[in-house]
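S.,

Sequence below, as promised.
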Amino acid sequence: MPQNTIHVLGGYQSDFAINWHRAQLGFDSLFSEAINGALESSGIGLDEVEVIHVGNAFGELFTGQSQLGGMPATVAPELQGVPSSRHEAACASGSMAVLGAMTDLESGRYDIALVIGAELEKTVSGDIGARTLGAAAWVGHEAGDVDYVWPAMFSTLADEYDRRYGLEDVHLRAIGELNFDNARSNPLAQTRGWSLTEDSFTDDDRHNPPVTGRLRRQDCSQMTDGTSAVVLVSERLLERRPDLRTRPMATITGWGHRTAGLPLEQKLKASADDVYVLPHVHQTVADALRRAGLAGIEQIDGAEVHDCFSMTEYMIIDHLGITPPGESWKAIEAGDIERDGRIPVNPSGGLIGVGHPVGASGVRMLFDGYKQVTEQAGSYQVPGARRFATLNIGGSATTVASFVVESTNAPD
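The prediction came back faster than expected:
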């Protein structure tokens, strides 16, 4: 393999059901758990970490704490002097941290990078938290007349899909139901123990209350405290440390990263003559597949994607290429995205089922992909998975990132 090949050597996810604020725990405890868990998983010592990248979106707004690049050395004095930086791109912050670490390793500056995504959101009520997250929109220019910015934005996306292609709300409810169902098998999922009934995924106002526009409660991801971390290493390191090759390991073979303007309306106007509602999202996935040397999504065994709302996943299904544009409903009805389907989507439960600590979600997706292709996903393992994709977005798909991660010995 080329010396600038990047491998995932291990990682960690906290229990997303824990309310860290209620437990009177802060970022120091969250980072300490992430560091210890990721390094233990990878067989790397604190004294071997060469660079750190932190993904965090809203630390200042939810806790008053900024400068989170300094938190690793705060809780682990052995990391004093190790370069560390914090990345912010709303819900794509974690993926930006991964890309930053990859660039450091690919350049030859370093050979071992620790990537940590972390967010604390339970410091305020759900209503205040939802409003706080609106900072990732174009503040003062869009969604100023709504209480819940992001449900309103993705309800607008649903309306645009309906205008172009037609959209039945029953398919949105089906996505929510599938992701909650998948999460019941995930021992780290925030909603694994929730009691929901068939009525919870209908238009019943009592069991599935309306939120904004076409979206209801079970169409929405969660307010979550949590962290996820991965250890990335270069091929150069493995040549010096052949003992590490015996550990469960995966390779990042492809990546994509594109950015659009902040306003959703601007994006929709720009795509008016395109078959894709958000063409830069499709291009991001296409970039990752091309860099991985893949002809299309059919060569992927599954995907962890950004279902901040059921409508987001509906959009992602056709933008991945699982169906032609506007036909995501066909994959839903055919069971193609179920855990035993043609291309499983969010076998972990996704953001709706697992939870959505904003700065951690991109890292968590990559870690789940790593677990799948190294057969460590346990009760939500996709049988025979050798190659997984991720798709992480920030804002109204302002920042988009995608990775392809595969077993070192994945077949063509």
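Residues 149-165 form the longest helix (17 residues).

Coffee later?
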